[in-house]
Design brief:
The complex is a heterotrimer of chains A (298), B (425) and C (311). By secondary structure, chain A is mostly helical. Chain A contains 12 helices and 2 strands, in the order H-H-H-H-H-E-E-H-H-H-H-H-H-H. A two-stranded antiparallel sheet of chain A has the order 1-2. Chain A is globular and about 60 Å long. With 425 residues, chain B is α/β, with parallel strands linked by helices. Chain B has 16 helices and 15 strands. The longest helix of chain B is centred in the first third of the chain and has 23 residues, at 2-24. Chain B is globular and about 65 Å long. Chain C has 311 residues and is an all-alpha fold. Chain C contains 13 helices and 4 strands. The longest helix of chain C is centred in the C-terminal third of the chain and has 27 residues, at 202-228. Mean pLDDT of chain C is 91; it is low at 307-311. Classes of the chains: A mainly alpha (298), B alpha/beta (425), C mainly alpha (311). At the B-C interface, helix 1, strand 2, helix 3, helix 4 and helix 7 of B face helix 1, helix 2, strand 1, strand 4 and helix 11 of C.
């Protein structure tokens, strides 16, 4: 029985991380129809900046609990700088082009950012485990988990709730939903689509950076860390249904639990678990779990 | 018709552009191409420490500043120029880059990835270009084929696993169970298979609790750590490297995995200076040979460590030693061939003849190209256990094993050698 | 009767074959590799003209390479012609089966499902230690059509084979695109429903195009395996597939010659960047890509077309 409990706990921790990544991706895709490959680099950027800021904070001899504020600051900074920079400076010039061209632009950005990160931070990995170690452990049965994992799950829940609230209960959120539903009509109804795009991309970028910031203390921030994340979060988003926040949450939960069960019960198939789940979901429901019907154009 | 002309002009332009690049590199002193990871996840732990070692060595070699027996300037008096190439990217890219590099340099030293070594070896043979592998681990290179132009100046990965098996049993002869945590690709699979086979051969009836194989660069090992914690194994073997290894230490340390089981990190030495006090006491640390802190004391090693440390503010790690070993081996072969040639610059065939079955001194002790028809090196290996002394990570209980105990004899495949109960022919 | 594209095709192929004996080996290799990859991209271009983008074309590239290599590895057959035949047949059979499913997918879902399939095959190959896991294994070729290849001439023989096969494939596809079925592809991209109302089966056309693309991918993979002499599962990894999409978009989908031209340019940029800026070659590639997307919206091929029109 304790085995099953461990599967669920490990799965939920992993899902939380996946969800934060996937939420930004699905939001950007829903509104702008861009599958943002640079999402992985922005995640890495968030992690690198967090490591630097926390390192600087602790080196200054400040209160170690302030390092959590540094994580938040790093995510905010990456979102507010990189989001508008990429949207205004680059993507804006390309709207109206094919979906696949926009995807390639983000691929180019990904390549460029990989080298930028290398030029700024070098090839050696960074680590700042203080925020991870600071809170101590809790025990479940014979297994011991760091309390930081609760912070991780908590930030995923808070992030999800905040986006859901913003989308459904604020004026701007409703406008955004309108744009997701039909860009042309909402433009005609007076929604400032331009601004919605800017805000969406900035929020999406910030979510990627939050993903990086909350993960940074748990691992070595190292070159190439963004690559693996990209396809993984694509898979989550596609399983859930593109452009759906609830879908991203469900997709993250499924992928997290399946992976954790594979590790515990059948480690040999861990490598396939995510892609097999994606293939099976797509075969059963060709547009993901939470898909909306599309009007047929004649 | 105008379109036709334009296509031709463009094609011709592209072709001439590339040819011009090739011609611009006229043959000057002695040119050596160095291929190692300059970007991607393998750059930090392996590629860059190796590149740094190459820079330290060649700069000092060209100035004639190395201690004996390497005090001659450059290679036999000739200055050496080096050109770096990034090893990142798939094997097709490596082959293309190697073909390009081969016509610009006299010889090539390189390759960390086993897949790349396997792909490059036949190409080196086809192009008749002397190529020295400096870090890749797979035993398949000289076990599945015979090469004239290819050398490897360090032992295969089999030594690392067999050495680890010997060490854990030496430290705890009552060992009852083992478990594994390795990356799911050739290196991880081979390392675990060799370790498992060697332990089972040395102590029949041992129980294998679980073998975890997460995807390469997964970065998050929460579920794997839980499984290992509940497996209650005496020993956990891991050939993790780079970011994955650091992540494992950071994630498993606070969860007391290292207290519950003895964890063997076969490439642990690469992160010991970076993670320092994060590595819990009692962790078994390997360096894929007698490198770094496990190296025998010698003038050469003292000089190498001091020079490297002064220049990069961090001590050299085993990939740096592997690189030094490859460079010094090539230098020895070159100078031996030069002497046999009456002091004139030797031909490539003469260097190869001198290289085969060579024995020479490196910062990590004696290197013997004893197997693979004289193209594959053997060396002894060592393992040690970590202990924090006043906040400083030190390695205690160092135990070393002679070459013949951890390497198969010439002509025997590693796998068969382990299965035969380590027979020395 | 010969149209413009075919004339250019023949001209360039003849030029390459004539230049072959005088080319340095590394250049011949680079062109071989670029053209072999160009074949894969040609398949993607066909799919794109049907309105589909596959993120999993590496699957067929890899299957073709493994099919060719396994003849050598497992069956002891070292004949290039037979190996290439295997590289063609295996992907076609697999595509016929997978196509049954994929033919009803569109847009991002087609892309992601094809990606899932290629990643599953990647995982299977990584798991198969008999085939060298992630390290792959080497491929040796001794003859072509039963005629032994002399030592040191492998590279030139493969380049000649690649030039000829690329020429045939490009010519045939050009013919196909101008045929009734080929023109239906473009119609499907514009509006599927209308095509159905016209009485044509969208499913069958998509399925056929998917199989053709797989065949081209397989041949490209087979040629790569022969030329490189080594294969590994990376050929099915998503970054490989991504690179193909990247070259397809950079080249432009207007002409069957564009993929080959784009592929050669891509290899050239990559080689030069790696040689002169080994530390920032990814950034160089990314910037070059952005410049092309920005200034040549219809792809590299527009370099020729636009000027022709102006003249």
């Amino acid at each position: 029985m304790s085995d099953l409990l461990a599967v669920v706990i490990d799965g939920i921790i992993y899902s939380s991380w996946l969800f934060i990544m996937a939420a930004g991706l699905t939001l950007i895709y829903g509104v702008m129809k861009i599958l943002n490959i640079a999402h992985g680099s922005l995640y890495a950027l968030g992690a690198y900046l967090s490591a630097s800021l926390v390192g600087w904070w602790l080196a200054g001899g400040h209160d170690p609990y302030g390092s959590y504020a540094m994580l938040a600051a790093a995510a905010l900074l990456v979102g507010l700088v990189m989001g508008p920079l990429l949207e205004r400076g680059l993507l804006r010039l390309m709207y109206g082009r094919d979906e696949v061209v926009l995807l390639l632009i983000t691929y180019a950005v990904f390549l460029i950012l990989e080298d930028v990160i290398k030029l700024v931070w070098g090839v050696d990995s960074l680590y700042v485990s203080q925020p991870y170690d600071l809170l101590g452990n809790f025990d479940i049965g014979e297994l011991s988990y760091p309390v930081y994992n609760v912070v991780l799950v908590g930030s995923a829940v808070v992030t999800g709730a905040a986006i859901a609230w913003a989308l459904h209960s604020t004026r701007h959120g409703k406008m955004l939903l309108a744009v997701i539903h039909d860009r042309e009509v909402s433009g005609a109804m007076g929604v400032n689509v331009d601004r919605v795009y800017l805000v969406t991309f900035t929020v999406g970028t910030m979510l990627a950076a939050i993903g990086g910031a909350v993960t940074a203390p748990t691992l070595a921030v190292s070159a190439g860390m963004g690559v693996e994340v990209i396809v993984l979060s694509f898979a989550v988003v596609v399983i859930g249904g593109l452009g759906s926040l609830g879908g991203a949450a469900l997709g993250a939960l499924i992928v997290g639990l399946v992976r954790s069960a594979a590790v515990h019960y059948w480690p040999a198939v861990e490598l396939f678990s995510v892609y097999s789940v994606m293939a099976m979901v797509l075969i059963a429901r060709p547009k993901g779990l939470f898909s909306t019907a599309e009007a047929r154009r004649i | 018709m105008k379109q036709l002309v334009r296509v031709w002009l463009c094609t011709a332009f592209a072709v001439f552009g590339m040819t011009a690049v090739a011609i611009a590199q006229a043959q000057q002193p002695l040119k050596i191409g160095i291929v190692t990871f300059l970007s991607g996840p393998a750059a930090g732990p392996f590629g860059v420490p190796a590149r740094n070692a190459a820079e330290v060595l060649f700069e000092n070699l060209n100035a004639g500043k190395l201690p004996a027996p390497y005090a001659t300037k450059g290679f036999g008096g000739a200055t050496v120029e080096i050109a770096f190439v990034d090893e990142a990217g798939p094997a097709t890219k490596q082959v293309a880059d190697f073909r390009n590099l081969a016509q610009r340099v006299d010889l090539v030293i390189g390759y960390v990835s086993s897949g790349n070594c396997l792909a490059i070896a036949p190409v080196a043979e086809e192009l008749n270009k002397l190529t020295v592998f400096f870090d890749c681990g797979t035993p398949r290179i000289f076990e599945d084929a015979t090469y004239k132009y290819v050398f490897r100046t360090h032992p295969t990965a089999t030594m690392d696993s067999v050495g680890a098996a010997l060490y854990v049993l030496d430290r705890n002869p009552k060992l009852k169970s083992i478990a594994g945590l390795n990356q799911n690709y050739a290196w991880g699979q081979d390392s675990w298979n060799d370790f498992e086979a060697a332990v089972k051969m040395l102590k029949p009836g041992i129980e294998v609790k679980t073998s975890q194989m997460p995807k390469l660069f997964a970065g998050q090992f929460g579920a794997e750590i839980s499984t290992l914690l509940s497996s209650n194994s005496d020993v956990i073997h891991s050939s993790f490297w780079g970011g994955d290894l650091e992540a494992l230490i950071l994630q498993a340390g606070p969860r007391n995995l290292f207290k519950k089981s003895t964890v063997v990190l076969t490439t642990g030495e690469t992160v010991m200076f970076r993670l320092g006090d994060k590595i819990p006491d009692g962790t078994v640390i390997g360096a894929r040979g007698m490198h770094g802190v496990l190296a025998p004391a010698s003038e050469l090693n003292k000089w190498f460590r001091a020079e490297y440390l002064a220049r990069y503010q961090v001590p050299p790690v085993y990939p740096s030693y592997h690189m030094a070993q490859a460079i010094l081996g090539t230098k020895t072969a070159y100078e031996k061939a030069q002497a046999a040639n009456g002091g004139n610059a030797p031909t490539q065939d003469q260097i190869i003849a001198a290289f085969e079955n060579l024995t020479y001194e490196s910062p990590s002790g004696k290197v013997q190209l004893a197997i693979g028809k004289g193209h594959q090196a053997v060396q002894g290996t060592a393992y040690g256990t970590s202990k924090l002394v006043k906040g400083q990570l030190t390695i205690t209980n160092i135990k070393s094993y002679p070459p013949e105990k951890v390497n198969p004899p010439d002509g025997v495949k590693s796998e068969d050698w382990i299965k035969s109960g380590f027979k020395s022919k | 009767m010969m149209d413009h594209t075919l004339r250019v095709l023949l001209g360039v192929a003849a030029l390459l074959l004539a230049g072959l004996p005088f080319m340095p080996q590394w250049l011949a290799f680079l062109i071989t590799l670029a053209l072999a990859r160009g074949l894969v991209v040609l398949g993607l271009v066909l799919l794109m003209r049907t309105g589909l983008v596959s993120f999993g074309q590496g699957l067929y590239y890899c299957l073709g390479a493994y099919a060719a290599a396994l003849l050598d590895h497992a069956a002891g057959i070292h004949d290039a012609a037979l190996m290439l035949l295997a590289a063609l047949l295996v992907p076609v059979v697999v595509a016929l089966v997978l196509g049954l499913l994929l033919a009803s997918y569109r847009g991002i879902f087609f892309a992601m499902l094809s990606l899932a399939f290629s990643m599953i095959v990647f995982g299977l190959l990584i798991k198969t230690s008999a085939l060298g896991s992630s390290d792959g294994f080497n491929v040796a070729t001794r003859s072509i059509f039963g005629i032994a290849i002399a030592d040191g001439y492998n590279g030139r023989v493969f380049m000649a084979a690649t030039v000829i096969l690329s020429g045939i494939a490009a010519g045939a596809l050009h013919h196909y695109l101008n045929s009734h079925l080929g023109r239906l592809s473009a119609a499907i991209r514009d509006n599927e429903l209308r095509v159905e109302y016209l009485g044509a089966s969208v499913r069958n056309v998509v399925h056929l195009n998917y199989v053709i693309a797989a065949a081209l991918g397989g041949i490209g993979g087979g040629l790569t395996a022969l030329a490189v002499g080594h294969i590994d599962p990376d050929m099915a990894y998503w970054t490989t597939s991504g690179e193909f999409v990247f070259v397809a978009v950079l080249s432009g989908t207007g002409n069957v010659l564009a993929p080959f031209f784009g592929s050669v340019i891509f290899e050239a940029i990559r080689t030069l960047a790696n040689q002169y800026a080994p530390n920032i070659w990814q950034m160089t590639l990314g910037l070059a890509m952005l410049a092309i997307i920005m200034f040549l919206p219809a792809g590299l091929w527009a370099l020729f077309r636009r000027k022709t029109r102006a003249a």
